[in-house]
Fold these 3 entries.
Entry 1:
Amino acid sequence: MHPDEPWLDYDPKAHKCLQERQKEEIQEKAQSNNSDEPWIEHGKRMQEKAKAHYQACLEREKAKELAKEQNNAQKEVKKEMPTIDYGYTQNTLSKSRRR
């Protein structure tokens, strides 16, 4: 025992969170022991992940197509609008603008 330095007495195995995590791991092992074929469960989980990934990819593709269609529609509207040139140039000198 170190009264002035309590951190020297620290026992990582006695930590509360670690004990809770170990209990959870033991429970998970007990549950997995009940099933005879854990690789089948793993396969099912992987299949669910693959389906979710595939759905996400489809949604992304749909979103890209919608964005392209909207951009095309906007470009068509811009083409229909006549551009009016008022004779102003963007490269005018700043001195001539100050008048």
Note: The two ends are 87 Å apart (CA to CA).
Entry 2:
Amino acid sequence: MGLRGPHPGTGGRPRKSLAEKVTEGNPGKRKLKVLDFEKIATEPEGVEMPPPKEFLSAAQRDGSTLSASELYKEAWKWLER
């Protein structure tokens, strides 16, 4: 015998695709917030690198030191560029 009816939770009208929602404009029907980009700074402001936390360079069970603090510093330098 074949399947009888839709599986639970799948009955009803099919969902709209994202492309259809976008072409309709405002799919949520909420009031949209308009941003004024003229007031926003053109250059992002940076901050000094905070020191790595102690647990990033803590001693491990096998006696070696965790090298996450070096990774933290390298990632911060990369993000500065």
Note: The chain is about 25% helix and 0% strand.
Entry 3:
Amino acid sequence: MALPEGPEGFEVEYVDADGVRRRVGLAECWAEPFGRLPPVRTVRAYPGQKSVTRQYWAATTRGPLLVESHLERHHAMLLDFDPQVTGLAAQPFRLFWPTRRVGMMSVFATLHHEFVRAATNDGLAAARSRGKTGGRPPRLTTEQIEQAQQLYDSGTPVPKIARTFKAAPATIYRYITPKAAN
């Protein structure tokens, strides 16, 4: 899945300060105070639930922050101690693409895949610029290929040529030029 380029491909859904659910383009909501907005979805707690849903009082926002797990609470606590953090919010928005709705885990997986692919392509280009071609080295040298061709042209069977160079017959066939049919 290709990601849209720039903010124009994304839409954001959030609940504004008046409690009205809105869905707008990403570029239209830069000024929204997401740190002070309510969560975009309700978090339900029930008996026997495996995760822990509770409120954590955050000093950064001077108010409660809804967390759904111990890990999320620990992250909130660490962020709360960082003086560079100016706001904390629990699920203040959802991201959408024009074609279909995509979950956040899919977004992160896709972004990670794109970053890895770009880094791999950059590395391969840098290696090529240094003369490295990558891949498995050739089984036969240029000199051996010429010798194999001479043996083949003189009528030596390919399996015997293969044994001479300690290679598979398929490898020999890959390197030699067959005789023209009469």
Note: The longest strand covers residues 11-15.
